[in-house]
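Students often ask why we bother predicting the structure of a whole assembly rather than each chain alone. The short answer is interfaces. A chain on its own may look different once its partners are present, and contacts between molecules only exist in the joint model. In this exercise we take two input lines together and write out one structure for the complete complex. Read the inputs first and try to guess which parts will touch.
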Amino acid sequence: MLIDLLLTGLYKGMISVLRLAKVVIPSTIFVVLLQTLGILQPIGDIFAPLMKIVGLPGQAAVAFAIGIFASIYAGIGAMAALSLTVKEATILSAMIAMCHSAFMETAVITEAGGSGLLIFTLRFIGAVLVGGLIHIFWM
Amino acid sequence: MIWIQSLSEGMLLGCMTVGKLALIILPLTILLEVAKRYGWIEFISIHAQGMTDILRLPRTAAVPVFIGVVFGIVSGSGIILQVAKEEKYTKEDLTVLFVLVGICHAIFEETIIFSGMGANLLIIVASRVCLGGGFAYMMAHILQSGRQVERYTS
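Now the answer. The structure tokens for the assembled complex follow.
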């Protein structure tokens, strides 16, 4: 009985891990490639003034954008390629946790009958707000 | 040469991240199976109904809110869509429900995976719960200002 539950859980877990691997590994490679090809730095410079509001380096904008447009796991994969301090990792994590998978999750919300656009807007505002707050109050 | 080097470097980093995620996700999926089998979810849903009154939602909304907060929007969408359809919620009800669930969902899975990145988990959970609850409360009072909570307490 308990073994049964254990195996079902393991099986479902392995399936999601494999599904994640397909997303995490390519996005990590993508960001590492951007880095070695010298593209990440200029992108970071463009977003640096914006990201400064939430206390993040400009390059973090790439991970945040990947999180929003792809998924939370792709965002984490991109994060893995950046070297962040604990404070920066916490801010970026909170922001991605708050606002991610814009297309898929908004589709489900709209399908269920909620206002997808309004909810996405609130999630984005929430992410920026939380990033700023953590930045200000971090000891 | 530089391509191959960064490909392998990215591959390694990516695999390490997947490994970290696996260590977190596997125990969690097992725990969720146990929770489902022993009816912990229904138990908590029933006891969470005070919250639906605060958000001016129908009482039955405790189940989809709880499912969404614990399992996530996409994983829990089967149950959420089903309840939303059967109970004939209004568009305002659904929007308030999804403001909360949209900001604050898959709360265990999506929080713990960030521990691998060295983030402070307590701050992430606290910010999602506070902002999700706060924004939902705000929207409930904007969208449903004229509504009587008592209507639903049948």
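Check your guess against this: The longest helix of chain A spans residues 2-36.
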